[in-house]
DNA sequence: TACTTTTTTATCATTTATGATAACCAATAC
DNA sequence: GTATTGGTTATCATAAATGATAAAAAAGTA
């Protein structure tokens, strides 16, 4: 059982990894998801505890499933 | 791209399915996760857009990964 | 019948995710 | 130099997730 902050960090890193693998600038992905770039930055940095819908939008725009996006450890 | 409400319904049903497969009463699982039973009911019914940490706690107490919990369609 | 267990629903307070805006930092290019 | 690009940080408002409590409805059981 990791704590909330650790989970947020892992999720943020996972998103960043997938995004960079596809060479998509943060602000571009944020725009596609209708998320402010500043808020997206905060999210990737593990600064928030995103909702499933936020993760879903990101997953869709990264062309992966939510299940794939949440493969953390 | 499904909408937010549809996503919530799918997630709720997924949780309920896994919980029932393990024969765990809703209130028991809620208690393990430190979530109010009333709020847990609302969540399973698709009434809220849960955060990843909420889903993580549920996944842990269902002995599945978050990735497994979020296998929706 | 009642009794218990499980789930649902409603409501209000509190916390927090997100929206929104602005300013800033670090590269890179012209 | 100064634009431009990509990212960060701070702040405030707003919407919504969650906490918390109570009551009622369903479902099961003797």
TrEMBL record, chains A, B:
Domain HTH cro/C1-type per the UniProt entry, residue ranges: 15-69
Organism name: Patiriisocius marinus
Name by which UniProt lists this protein: HTH cro/C1-type domain-containing protein
Keywords: DNA-binding, Transcription, Transcription regulation
Cellular-component GO terms for this entry: cytosol
Entry-linked PROSITE patterns: HTH_CROC1 (PS50943)
PANTHER family attached to this UniProt entry: HTH-TYPE TRANSCRIPTIONAL REGULATOR, HTH-TYPE TRANSCRIPTIONAL REGULATOR SUTR
GO molecular function terms attached to this record: DNA binding; DNA-binding transcription factor activity
One Pfam family per UniProt: HTH_3
């Amino acid at each position: 059982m990791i704590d909330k902050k650790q989970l947020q960090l892992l999720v943020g890193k996972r998103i960043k990894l997938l995004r960079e693998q596809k060479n998509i600038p943060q602000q571009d992905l944020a725009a596609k998801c209708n998320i402010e770039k500043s808020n997206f930055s905060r999210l990737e940095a593990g600064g928030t505890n995103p909702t499933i819908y936020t993760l879903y939008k990101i997953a869709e725009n990264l062309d992966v499933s939510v299940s794939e996006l949440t493969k953390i450890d």
